[in-house]
Each structure stands twice: as C-alpha cells, then as structure tokens.
Amino acid sequence: MRTKKSPAAKKMLKTLLIDESWADFLAAHIDPMFTFSKPMAKIVRIKPETTDTVSFYLQPNRHWQGFKAGQSITVQARSNGKLLERMYSLSSSPDRRYLRITVKKQGLVSTALHETWQRGMVVPISQAQGEFCLPADTHTPLLLIAGGSGITPVYSLLQTLRGKSQKAVLLYFNPTAHDVLFQTRLERLAAQNANIQVHFLYTRNPANGQPTTRLNAALLESLGIDARAVLTWLCGPASLQAAGRELWAQWGISHRLTMESFQIAARRPQESSGGAAVQVKLTRSRRELKLPGERPLLDELEDAGVYPRFGCRMGICRTCHCDKERGQVENLKDGDHSGEGREQIRLCVSRAASNLELNL
After folding, report:
1. Least crowded by CB within 10 Å, which of 180, 250, 264, 280?
2. How many CA atoms lie within 13 A of 220 on its CB side?
3. In terms of DSSP bridges, do strands 142-147 and 40-50 run parallel, antiparallel, or are they unpaired?
4. Which is nearest to 137 in space by CA: 168, 104, 97?
5. Tens of pLDDT, residues 55-81
C-alpha cells in the first residue's frame, strides 16, 4: 500500500529535487567550489601593488565562462553585517588560468575586501560583463588613456596586443609616481613589444623633474598623437573623463572615443534641480519618501534607509535596475530625460527629475 505524502512533504521533496540554491547550500559544506551552475572562485594569492592597493588572484570553478579583455566581474563582501556587491575590472589577460582584480582601499566595498578576503577563501563571482572591449579592427592604431586604478581594464587590453602589429600608445595619469600600478610590468610590455608605447604622466608631484600635466590638446601634440587617426579607449576618474569628452567633442570625433568609468561625474551646481524635494512612492514596500532629487536615486534611497541591491554603481551591471511606474528621471551618464510612463531604470545612474513611483 502506497503512503500518501502530505503537502509539506511534497513541497520539501520538490525543493530537494530541483532547487539549485538549496543544492548549492548543501554542496558547499562538502566542497565550496562545487555548485550546479553558479560561478565561484578560490582566492589563491594576494599581492600588494602599492601601499593601499592589492591584487586578488582568483581560481574560478567549472561554471566560469571566460571573459574578454576590458570586462568586469561583480564580487561580494560583508561590512557591518551587510552583504555588499561591487563590480571590478579584470586586470588579468583572458588567456591566463586565473582571474585578477586589483583593488585600492577606498570606499565601503573595497575596504571590506582588504579587511576580510584571505587566501584560501571561496567567494561567489558573476560572469564577465561590460563592453569596454577592443573592436575586431586590428589595423587602426589605438590610444589608451588611464587614470589611477582605471589602468586595470586598460592593462588587460594591452596584454592582448602582445606580439601583434597593431600599434598602441598608453597615457597613464597619476598624482605621483608612488600611485602607479603595474609600472614594472608595463615597462616590460613596452620593451618587449615594438607596437606598444607607454607614457607615465603625473598631475601633482612629477618624477625626474617632469612637468605636471593634464589631458589636453597640447599634450597630445607634444607626443605626436593625432586623435583623428586613432581609436581611443579611456578609463579613469571623473575629471579625466570630462577632459576627454570635451576634447573629442570639440574635434567632432566623439564616435572615436570609448569610455569606462568607476563613478558618475559630479553634478555641477548650476545643473542641480534647485527646486523642492521630490516625493518617491515605493509601491512594493508601501513607503513614501521625500528625496532631494540631486544625486543618483541609489545614493538618496540609501540615505533614507532603503537599500536596493546594487553592483557596479556606474550603470553597467544592471543589478540595481527597477521598474519606474510613473514620473521622470534624468540619466546622469548622458543627461537624457525619460518619459513619464512605465520603464526600467538603473538606480545608480538615474536622478529623480519629478515625483516618482518605483516598484521597490
């Protein structure tokens, strides 16, 4: 005689049979690297790069699908009991067996990685994301511009040009020589590959008597670089992005400039809404908030005690996307304004331009 299973037993059996997250939880107690579909990685090495920057070398499990030079991954860290996520560019070459992210100790997530990640730990990672990748065109010369930790995806791009005929010039800006990442490796890369040139440029305290310098037309002219004859990739802080965007726009060649950023450029005071605060209704949580409407929605929601999921905080990974039911937002990356109706937005790069209803 067959025993009739209770609804609770049926539900448990179904969970045990098909719920991958439950299976992953059980498997992690046997082998943390074993999952049914989720990419994980073991921290196999931690290498200091400067006084406040380290590289984490990660060995991914079998679910890792590889990456293109210039792409990023999302990682997690805990701080004060909260699970935080952020996207980091891969600084390794795609042909290596390991992955490498290079992290400066600044900001909440980066500081948490410095303080909590240890060799031998197994950590969840995302699949590679992002479009800061070189095109199929291998004939047009390249100009690569990096500032500070913006060198991480650019260094990955450079490594793919080893032994190639395509010419590339790197302009690497830092406040001082002590802030330079990968200096020895970059010098070696240029010495071993005639198609690669590297220029270290300093904005505060120059080395060897060099003058301080910024990205401008005079600098490019002094180096014999014609921006109209090259394809340019730029990654760095807001000031470097702004200089590049303005120069290439003046020359009418914005289409030849590809940029990757680690932050949203600060709004100028005259661009501020300057009006009354906006009302934001969160339909799922049944809350109503009054927000300034001056900064990214993600920042202002967090200030108000609401903590949506996020990853890169720069409009790439889509972890913080949500449905806007009503109202208008401004895209802080390009200044475009949305319509008034329903659409999906990214909280990290959207500013409330009117009263809003969000599906949060």
Report:
1. 250
2. 18
3. unpaired
4. 168
5. 999 999 999 999 999 999 999 888 877
Which residues share a beta bridge with 180? none
299 vs 280: CA distance, rounded Å:
14
Is residue 88 within 8 Å of 72, Cβ to Cβ? yes
Q: Which residues of the chain are under the pLDDT cut of 50? A: 1-3, 5, 10, 13-14, 18, 264-274
- Please state, in angstroms and as integers, the Cα–Cα distance from residue 138 to each residue in 39, 167, 225, 249, following that order: 32, 9, 18, 24
The DSSP 8-state label assigned to residue 6 in this structure reads P
Q: Which of 112, 47, 48 is nearest to 80 (CA)?
A: 112
pLDDT given for residue 238 in this prediction = 86
Domains of the chain (ranges, CATH numbers): 7-31 (no CATH), 39-124 (2.40.30.10), 142-260 (3.40.50.80), 269-358 (3.10.20.30)
Q: Answer whether 73's CB lies under 8 Å from 80's CB.
A: no
User: What is the per-residue DSSP string for 266-302?
Assistant: PPPGGGS--SPPEEEEETTTTEEEEE-SSS-HHHHHH
Say what angle helices 183-192 and 151-159 make with each other, to 10 degrees. Answer: 30
Alpha helix (H) ranges present in the chain? 7-18, 20-28, 108-116, 151-159, 183-192, 217-222, 238-250, 297-303
CA torsion, points 183, 106, 97, 141, in degrees to nearest 10?
-50
Question: Which among 169, 180, 171, 173 is positioned nearest to 212, based on CA atoms?
Answer: 173
**Angstrom distance (rounded) from CA 226 to CA 143:** 10
pLDDT at residue 315, as a whole number: 76
Tokens representing 300 are 């202002």
- Reduced to 3 states (helix: H, G, I; strand: E, B; else coil), residue 21 is helix
Which tokens belong to 45?
Answer: 């090495």
Q: What's the pLDDT score for residue 270?
A: 35
Point out which residues pair with 100 in neighbouring strands.
Answer: 57
Overall pTM > 0.85: no
